[in-house]
Amino acid sequence: MVQFKNLFNNQNMKVVESKGGIKIFEYQRDLSVKPEQAIATYYAYEMNIRKRQALIELNGNAFTISAGAMQWTAGSISMAADVKGFGDLFSKAISSKVTKESAIKPKYQGNGLLMLEPTYKHLLIEEVGDWNGLVLDDGLFLACDANIKQKVVARTNLSSAVLGNEGLFNLCLQGQGLAILESPVPREELIEVFLDNDEIRIDGNFAIAWSNSLDFRVEKSSKNLIGSAVSGEGFVNVYRGTGRVLMAPIL
Q1: Can you give the pTM of this predicted structure?
Q2: For position 83, what pLDDT does the model report?
């Protein structure tokens, strides 16, 4: 049996989000500060720049995480590379090149606790099944239920990569289960857009995640060149169809 002191009852570690067997801790203050760092640390705290960690409780299930993201485990937990053979390894290597994600993601399974490395990014827990395929911007993936399928999806046209500044390929999560994402902004600032056979146009790559059911492409802000020139926008990212978009107002 493993027992903890100063973890779940640590007043400096606040649980800011909890879902399923996942808890997101946020450190209220950095208590290990050198005198010469005190001023910068104080203002970092005031501006919501704080360390955050995800704690995953495993009960016979498994989680796949980004390479190097594990800080510690407790209990009967084993780790294995999430690779099913040479063909799968080659496929994952190709995927890592085009999505900028790690080629091999370790899978932890068993019974116990899995704590991920601290980060200054904002951690989000998302139910993948609610998205009809969750497409992620580069660098957002941190962890997910091991039964969730990870695949690479391509933009619908080459102009999406050249003009939309989104890249030609993205990681898509499919299935039922929870995923942990590393967001550049807190959930309180994210705008969630629900589309029902409609569209949203975004100037820039502010969409950090969207449903795979949506058609994403880049189009001129106006139907004619004069209109685009007058608007000053040029090209915009267009998400069209039925699904959801998670949009950051600032990056």
Answers
A1: 0.85
A2: 59
Q: What is the pLDDT of residue 156?
A: 62
Whose structure tokens read 């704590």?
115
Distance CA 73, CA 93 (A): 27
pLDDT of residue 134: 97
Assess whether pLDDT exceeds 80 at residue 86.
Answer: no
Supply 123's token pair: 């951690």
Single-letter amino acid, residue 228:
S
Per this entry, what is the length of the chain? 251
Residue in 5, 234, 244, 21 with CA at minimum distance from that of residue 112: 21
Cβ–Cβ contacts within 10 Å for residue 7, how many?
Answer: 13
